[in-house]
Design a protein that fits this description.
365 residues, alpha+beta, 2 domains, 10-stranded mixed sheet, two-stranded antiparallel ribbon, 9 helices, 23% strand
């Protein structure tokens, strides 16, 4: 059995980024463009087009020995970096692939996990991106990890994987050392999300790992679907965490606006800030929803919908929408209060002018 393990680590930048600005300003040959599907797809299918800002191939020392790793970093306009680490493997059985889930990088006497290793790479790249980061927000979320075991050479027929090796596949994707102890219910749950386009290929996906068997090794489009689905999950998690902070602050600002001590203050800045945050988040949510346009019953659409269901993207999206609704309601209350104060001030000025007019009439009379 031969193939490669593809590790994804997706990081949120805490700001949006203009890819066109970078391409027009930085003098380096960025690689960009849309991924072409290797299977039949409708013409309207669209993938996000990131910039490939870093690519390297190196030999790294790990807890599994020396590995040749291909490392690529892709920058997305929504404000995220995807680190993709790929390393080839040869194994006798699926069980031999499980140690890759605990891959650790060694440098001298020190050893670190893949998250920390990728984080250091991302931090160096962010330093160069600072001039191109816009609309920053103060929220930190953990990177989104995903591992894909891609098998391109195997003597075992695909149908054997879907029958006799179901538990082995489930254990691999769950990083469980005891395949025989896994319950039937857990196996059935994993195998609710499997797909096959030809008779000799297979895709099985789980929460944080997937298995791809493709004798032609033409699986880049499937990997792109995994990447984009995880990117959407990362950004929805980020917006959810950011909205928690924004809504809490909005309630505090609203209480301050209604406080008796601030009655004579217009509240214009509070309303303006709420409006700007609401508009920025609405635009960001729109960008996330448009990261991919995967509709229809074609193969990649099925894989994407399975990812969306497994990652519970709709639940995350509903959480964001509900918090956006709360923010909108707070904005409307603040706007109504501001309008009421404007009317009160206007009425006060009218009464004041009337009194001044009476005083002048009396004085002249």
């Amino acid at each position: 059995m031969k193939g490669e393990v593809v590790f994804y680590r997706l990081f949120d930048l805490g700001a949006s980024v203009d890819l066109d600005e970078i391409q027009g300003t930085v003098d380096m040959p960025f690689l960009a463009g849309r991924m072409l599907s290797e299977r039949a797809t409708p013409r309207y299918a669209r993938f996000a087009a990131p910039l490939l800002v870093h690519v390297d191939q190196r030999t790294v020392e790990t807890n599994l020995g020396s590995l040749v790793a291909s490392i690529a970093v892709k920058l997305y306009g929504v404000g995220a970096l995807a680190v993709v680490v790929r390393t080839p493997f040869e194994a006798s059985v699926l069980r031999d692939l499980r140690p890759f889930a605990g891959l650790r990088i060694r440098a001298g006497d020190k050893e670190e996990g893949l998250d920390a290793y990728c984080r250091r790479l991302v931090d160096r790249i962010i330093e160069d991106l600072v001039p191109f980061l816009h609309d920053s927000y103060d929220v930190n979320v953990d990177p989104e990890p995903y591992t894909v075991y891609c098998v391109s050479v195997t003597e075992t027929p695909v149908r054997v994987f879907t029958t006799a090796l179901r538990r082995e596949v489930t254990a691999l994707l769950a990083n469980d050392p005891r395949p025989d102890a896994i319950s039937d219910e857990e196996v059935d749950d994993t195998w609710r999300n499997w797909f096959s386009y030809y008779q000799d290929d297979l895709v099985v996906l789980d929460w944080d790992a997937a298995l791809v068997i493709e004798p032609s090794a033409s699986y880049e489009d499937t990997l792109t679907v995994f990447e984009l689905a995880n990117l959407q999950l990362l950004e929805l998690r980020t917006y959810d965490a950011f909205l928690d902070k924004v809504v809490d602050k909005a309630y505090d600002d609203l209480e301050d606006l209604f406080a008796r001590s601030s009655f004579l203050r217009s509240g214009h800045e509070t309303v303006k800030e709420l409006a700007e945050v609401r508009m920025d988040l609405a635009e960001a949510s729109f960008q996330v929803d448009n990261i991919s346009k995967l509709w229809g019953d074609w193969f990649l659409g099925k894989v994407y919908r399975a990812c969306a269901k497994k990652f519970e993207l709709d639940s995350w999206r509903r959480n964001v929408e509900e918090k956006m609704k709360d923010l909108s309601e707070i904005y409307e209350v603040a706007e109504a209060e501001l309008e009421a104060r404007r009317l009160l001030i206007l009425e006060f000025l009218v009464v004041l002018l009337f009194i001044v007019d009476l005083v002048l009439i009396a004085y002249r009379g």
